[in-house]
Write a structure and sequence with these properties.
Layout: H1 3-27, H2 29-36, H3 40-62, H4 73-86, E1 93-96, E2 99-104, E3 109-110, H5 112-130, H6 139-157, H7 162-179, H8 183-202, H9 205-215, H10 226-238, H11 263-295, H12 300-324, H13 342-360, H14 373-376
Antiparallel strand pairs: 1-2, 2-3
Helix pairs in contact: 1-3, 1-11, 1-13, 2-3, 3-13, 4-5, 4-6, 5-6, 5-7, 5-12, 5-13, 6-7, 7-12, 10-11, 11-12, 12-13
Length: 379
């Protein structure tokens, strides 16, 4: 598969998912009336507006040489950190449902963690490109990039956004692995992160309730487990072929946030198991195409940046679908391209535009080859 074929496949999958997302936001608008006090048309109009804005951004970014972003790395990192800090400042940060993930910018709210996904991926890719021969060392290959990546990640975690933290951490590990970081250092980092999450979970009654609800959704179906319980009922009600687009009943108040984090069960209910599996296949095909694209790029920065961008889409999608199918506890993570939400949609579409720029402005190898690991680890 050539890089041109890969990027075309990515755009085809993304376009189908985006069209499905706008359709499902229209379908779940009745639920949004109950939970947010807005009309169904307002959600559809806003989602379509965000989609158009994201597409315009993607088309513009696809025509810009991605190498220029390396000149702005330090400034972008500082802006990213300041924006995340702003979420904690009263009057600037906006608290919704006990979580401080948003900035109140007057006319609209903005979620800095969504922009941080692209920014931190850029920072890691730039660092390992500059220090390519040092990626296997302890300080310049692990500690310093770990601090660069870890400070914004900690700010996102203490916003009580564990879902985004987990997805972004997996993205960072993917970039570090491809860069040639020692495997045992990554394992150590994963263990330390798991311990930190465990301590934060047992110290929070709300998080512990989510764990209990995950273990027994039926017993907690009227409390913390109501979303996952009704999600299971929605999938069961949809069966193989679904009840029909717009005819689902789980979105009518019984399952909170059916238009955002839990929109995938509505897909399963209305379009059936084949529709839900189709979404999984599209995300998987998009990820595979992105990896094939990255493996054929000879430019180190472009290859690492592409790996990171692909993972910023893949991990949130997989974690969301694992949550709504009760494989993981509820973490409040939207489904890319499909869930309602402006910041997530615009920046996820923008990532597609940057991937297109990488394909357009970098030379490719005649055949795929093993990335940096065998050549970057010093003996």
């Amino acid at each position: 598969m050539s890089t041109r074929t890969s990027i075309i496949c990515i755009w085809v999958c993304f376009t189908i998912l985006l069209a499905l997302g706008i359709t499902m936001v229209a379908s779940t608008g009745q639920c949004a009336i109950v939970t947010d006090g807005k009309s169904a048309d307002s959600f559809l109009y806003k989602q379509a507006t965000f989609a158009v804005g994201g597409l315009i951004a993607a088309l513009c970014l696809s025509r810009l040489d991605y190498h220029m972003y390396r000149n702005w790395v330090i400034g972008l990192w500082i802006i990213c950190v300041l924006a995340l800090i702003g979420c904690y400042i009263p009057g600037i940060g906006k608290n919704l449902n006990g979580e401080s993930r948003w900035l109140n910018l007057g006319l609209f709210t903005f979620q800095p963690s969504e922009a941080a996904k692209i920014c931190l991926t850029l920072c890691l890719a730039s660092w390992y490109t500059t220090h390519r021969e040092m990626s296997g060392t302890f300080w310049k290959g692990f500690i310093i990039p770990g601090v660069i990546f870890g400070i914004p990640l900690a700010l996102i975690l203490f916003e009580k956004d564990m879902g985004t933290t987990a997805a972004l951490a997996m993205t960072g590990f993917a970039v570090m692995w491809v860069s040639g970081v020692r495997w045992w250092l990554l394992v150590l980092a994963i263990l330390l992160g798991a311990i930190a999450l465990y301590l934060m979970t047992i110290d929070s009654p709300n998080r512990m309730e989510r764990i209990y609800a995950w273990k027994d959704a039926f017993a907690y179906r009227r409390q913390e487990g109501c979303q996952q319980w009704f999600a299971a009922l929605a999938f069961a009600r949809g069966g193989m072929f679904g009840v029909g687009l717009g005819d689902g009943i789980s979105k009518h108040g019984s399952m909170p946030f059916a238009h955002t984090d839990f929109i995938f069960p509505v897909v399963g209910e209305e379009l059936g198991i084949f529709g839900a599996l189709g979404v999984v296949v599209l995300f998987s095909l998009m990820t595979l195409s992105g990896i094939i694209l990255a493996l054929q790029i000879t430019d180190t920065f472009g290859r690492l940046f592409a790996v990171g961008l692909v993972n910023t889409i893949f991990w949130p999608a997989m974690l969301n679908m694992m949550v709504v199918t009760s494989i993981l506890p509820n973490s409040g993570l939207p489904l890319p391209f499909i869930s309602y939400g402006g910041t997530n949609l615009v920046f996820t579409i923008a990532a597609i535009g940057i991937l297109t720029s990488i394909q357009r402005f970098t030379p490719t190898a005649q055949q795929m080859y093993i990335p940096l690991r065998r050549r970057s680890n010093p003996r």
